[in-house]
Amino acid sequence: MRADDNPSMAGPRVIRRKQTPDMRARVFVGLAVLAALIATGTLGYMGIEQWSFLDALFMTITTVTTVGYREVRPLDTEGRVFTMFLVVFGVGTAFYLLTTFVALVIEGDLGAAFGITRMKNRIEHLHGHSILCGYGRVGEEIAREFADRGIEFVVIENNADAVERAVEAGHMLIDGDAASDEVLMSAGVMRARTLLAASDSDSGNTYITLTAKALNPRIFVVARAGKRESEARVLRAGADRVISPYALSGRRMALSAIQPNIVDFIDTLAVGRDSEQILAEIEVSEDSGLLGLYIRHVLEGSRMTILGLQRASGDLIVGPREDVRLEQGDRLMVVGPEMELSRAWTVNKAAL
Question: pLDDT value at position 319?
Fold first, then answer.
């Protein structure tokens, strides 16, 4: 998304897919065959019936298009045989062109309309999803990670090239300005759990954060800040977390040089797949079934390891003791098999 300092308030637009090269080639081939057929018919009538160019062209077009207006002049046997072949090839070519044009219409405008309708219906039924604002280099990596983890999300983008990449990747997409109330509402901002402001513009991310928080103060916003001085401004706009890709990559490169095994270990935990050990965060609430439990209840009969506990106040406890009681708004940082973590709250609710 190319956001500027004065984001437009344009609403979401219909996404039109580019026609494929194969479809365009079919059209060109059909038109070329039709032109060759008309040229052959005209020259044929001029040679066989000794007609003038205009009479021969008129007869050829009425024959190829199967209009059957009238014969210019009576045909002899050779002319009738030639006309029969012209009708057969003309009907075949016309049918080929007709089906190609219908396919173009369905794949183009009608296909886009039906696709947008289906996408809107899917978005309207999302709850607790994520909204990704911006599909640049950072946004594309975020989308890939979300897709790998099976997380439902909607991309908001208005750059034509980025829109095309997101469409080809099969993501749910709204083509529009993420700083617009209408666009964010279309993406389900009132029902979303998180919003990621990942555009290339710090000012754009600030506007997006302000708009999203004004519409839904409860949404968790993670914003990108390219410049260090922009971090404070985005935080004042309401972002819950601010990530600087350049600072983050710098620290990561430094750590990789100093302690490479630690970096590999964290990567393995963070992106584990297929029941491997992963690093996860679990929120304590009434719905989770963890509210009121002690740490020992969470660990009972499980292969999870609790690395840390962040209290609702923001205090972080590393390696909490087993007699610590979980309270509303706490967050557990745990390591364990992905399948076990997904059902941890159900298992531990019965431990009481």
Answer: 86
